[in-house]
């Protein structure tokens, strides 16, 4: 066994996986990764199950040191500078941290959460089938709280497998898509239009439980008390002050404010990765479109292994670039299309 | 053939869950139908349903849209949901100790003022109630109670508090509640109980079940401290009696 020691880490960083399903009927919070696609990409790079337990790193920097042997890891999610002893490490790649070396990650340059997966996954004692940290409920393993400097993970020794990169589809941009309901009839047409037509920003007081949205006040038709009912990831509830809250992974399993709309499954991670203060909009889609997108999203995650490439291919291309330019071809490293020329024998 | 009941509303909760709503208000009959549908789905599972969450007036059904679509699921749920629920079996009752007011119930005086009465009167009305656990939700063990005295119905706070203490006993709208863990809340805080409705390494982990009956009795703040220590050590400090 090797150890991976947390040399430094910022707030809002914790062990997360696919979440704690099956006991929402007792109020057991689901938790799990805020951006499931990035969690799955990092794990896939190492041959782990897509939703295996990994480190979810919040917007600030972090550093991890390998002890008692090498540790193979992979990073995906919010982009940031990363290096081992000054040698850059690219996002969406695996890398082996040798014994005594430190992988240093800068702050998120966009988005909020980056996932550090570990070959063989983080080990711990699952509670209700999950290691995911829910600090409020005192749940999670091996630490039932956000990570701190000095924490460490007992992990598999690095396999020595060749390093990989994963080619993810270009991140979607544009409005966050929602399905109206379940309580859209608690709002009149003007207020629904205000919700869908306005620009929103995520408040700095947001956390893994909910993203508070700053924008116009949304008024209820019959007041803000409804009888508490069930919530899902992405439920957008409107409390009495009219400022909507998008419920995220540490959400309560039920809530008593009217829910005007629900973020579609395929876009929950995208909302999670929207930085505080960044303006965005919502767009309503049909149930048919939302379910079609949910199926495509599940398929994308299932088929992530098809997107793995040898990490060496990048290095080879740099040599090819040098050779080609020496030979007199005008080849740009920034334009993937031109590689087709040099790839020919 | 038994007569069927009016069908519930099927409200979309995103692309992977549907709220099967039997009533818009707190209604014991609706709650019985919720619990009956929940039981029926546990006994005869529909392929694609991943989890169900009973609440006061609706059953939230989580499902995998890769296995079943919204319309197809609705077609399967409705015939089950219109069946009359079986009669209620005998329930157990919990007597729950509460330290009212002061630091443990910071809204007690404001609630009394808003309702033009005294804090003692609010305590008497709250503790004198006969409640039923209608659902458990929001955070682990948070037991939502029906049966709150009508004179105590009042709107929730306009601005929810970001953190309220573990064990909070509170009221919100027409509901009463036992909160287990520290959590945000927009309810009015009347007191605190040392009872843990959820405790991870205790058997049972979850103390209350939907359908249980609940009454409260006042304790002083010193007794609270004693019972709180016992509860922390894993003791169940609520009294269980036959309903």
Number of helices of chain A: 6
- Kindly report the name of the CATH homologous superfamily of the largest domain in chain B: Cyclophilin-like
Spatially, the strands of the biggest sheet of chain B line up as 5-12-9-10-7-6-13
Structural class of chain A: alpha+beta
Largest sheet of chain B at a glance? 7 strands, mixed, barrel
The portion of residues assigned to helices of chain B is 10-25%
Gap between N and C termini of chain A, in Å? Answer: 44 Å
Q: What is the percentage of strand-forming residues of chain A?
A: 25-35%
Mean pLDDT of chain A: 91
CATH C-level class of the largest domain in chain B:
Mainly Beta
Return the string of H and E elements of chain A.
EEHEEEEEEEEEEEHEEEEEEEHEEHEHH
Overall SS class of chain B:
alpha+beta
Q: Kindly report the CATH topology of the largest domain in chain B.
A: Cyclophilin
Radius of gyration of chain B: 19 Å
Q: In this structure, how is the largest beta sheet of chain A organized?
A: 8 strands, mixed
- Beta-strand content bin of chain B: 25-35%
Assembly state of the chains shown:
heterodimer
Q: What is the number of independent domains of chain B? A: 2
Low-confidence stretches of chain B: none
Strand order of the main beta sheet of chain A, please?
21-14-15-18-17-20-13-22
Query: Strand tally of chain A, please?
Result: 23
Organism (chain B): Bradyrhizobium shewense
GO molecular function (chain B): ATP binding; hydrolase activity
InterPro entries (chain B): CT_C_D, Cyclophilin-like_dom_sf, PxpB
Protein name (chain B): Sensor histidine kinase inhibitor, KipI family
């Amino acid at each position: 066994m090797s150890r991976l020691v947390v040399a430094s880490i910022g707030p809002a960083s914790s062990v997360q996986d696919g979440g704690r399903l099956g006991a929402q009927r007792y109020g057991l919070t689901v938790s799990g990764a805020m951006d499931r696609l990035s969690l799955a990409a990092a794990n896939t790079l190492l041959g782990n199950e897509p939703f295996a337990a990994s480190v979810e790193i919040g917007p600030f920097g972090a550093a991890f040191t390998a002890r008692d042997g090498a540790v193979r890891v992979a990073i995906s999610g919010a982009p940031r500078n990363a290096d081992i002893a000054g040698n850059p490490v690219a996002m969406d790649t695996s890398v082996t941290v040798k014994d005594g070396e430190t992988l240093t990650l800068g702050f998120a340059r966009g988005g909020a959460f980056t996932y550090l997966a570990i070959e063989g996954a983080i080990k711990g004692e699952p509670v209700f089938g999950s290691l995911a940290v829910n600090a409020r409920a005192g749940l999670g393993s091996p630490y039932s709280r956000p990570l701190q400097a000095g924490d460490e993970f007992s992990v598999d020794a690095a396999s020595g497998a060749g390093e990989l990169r994963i080619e993810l589809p270009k991140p979607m941009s544009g409005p966050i898509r929602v399905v109206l309901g379940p309580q859209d009839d608690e709002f009149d047409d003007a207020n629904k239009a205000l919700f869908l037509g306005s620009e929103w920003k995520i408040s700095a007081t947001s956390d893994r439980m909910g993203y508070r949205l700053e924008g116009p006040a949304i008024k209820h038709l019959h007041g803000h008390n409804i009888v508490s009912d069930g919530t899902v990831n992405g439920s957008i509830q409107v409390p009495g002050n009219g400022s909507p809250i998008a419920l995220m992974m540490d959400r309560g399993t039920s809530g008593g404010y009217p829910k005007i709309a629900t973020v579609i499954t395929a876009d929950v991670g995208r909302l999670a990765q929207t930085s505080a203060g960044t303006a965005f909009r919502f767009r309503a889609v049909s149930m048919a479109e939302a379910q079609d997108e949910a199926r495509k999203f599940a398929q994308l995650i299932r088929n992530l292994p098809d997107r793995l490439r040898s990490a060496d291919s990048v290095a080879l291309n740099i040599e090819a670039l040098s050779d080609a330019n020496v030979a007199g071809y005008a080849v740009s490293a920034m334009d993937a299309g031109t590689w087709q020329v040099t790839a020919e024998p | 053939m038994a007569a069927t009941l009016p069908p519930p509303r099927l409200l979309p909760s995103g692309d992977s869950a549907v709220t099967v709503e039997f009533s818009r208000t707190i209604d014991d009959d609706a709650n019985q139908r919720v619990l009956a549908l929940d039981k029926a789905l546990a006994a005869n599972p529909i392929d694609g349903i991943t989890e169900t969450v009973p609440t006061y007036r609706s059953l939230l059904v989580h499902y995998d849209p890769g296995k079943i679509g919204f319309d197809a699921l609705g077609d399967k749920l409705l015939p089950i949901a219109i069946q009359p629920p079986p009669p209620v079996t005998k329930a157990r009752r919990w007597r729950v100790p509460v330290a009212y007011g002061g630091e443990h119930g910071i809204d007690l005086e404001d609630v009394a003022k808003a309702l033009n009465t005294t804090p003692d009167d609010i305590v008497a009305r709250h503790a004198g109630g006969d409640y039923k656990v209608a659902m458990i939700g929001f955070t682990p063990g948070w037991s939502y109670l029906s049966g709150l005295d009508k004179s105590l119905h009042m709107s929730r706070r306009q601005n929810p508090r970001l953190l309220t203490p573990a064990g909070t006993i509170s009221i919100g709208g027409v509901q009463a509640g036992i909160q287990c863990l520290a959590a945000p809340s927009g309810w009015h805080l009347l007191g605190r109980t040392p009872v843990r409705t959820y405790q991870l390494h205790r058997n049972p982990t979850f103390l209350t079940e939907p359908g249980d009956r609940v009454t409260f009795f006042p304790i002083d703040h010193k007794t609270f401290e004693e019972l709180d220590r016992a509860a922390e050590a894993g003791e169940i400090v609520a009294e269980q009696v036959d309903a």
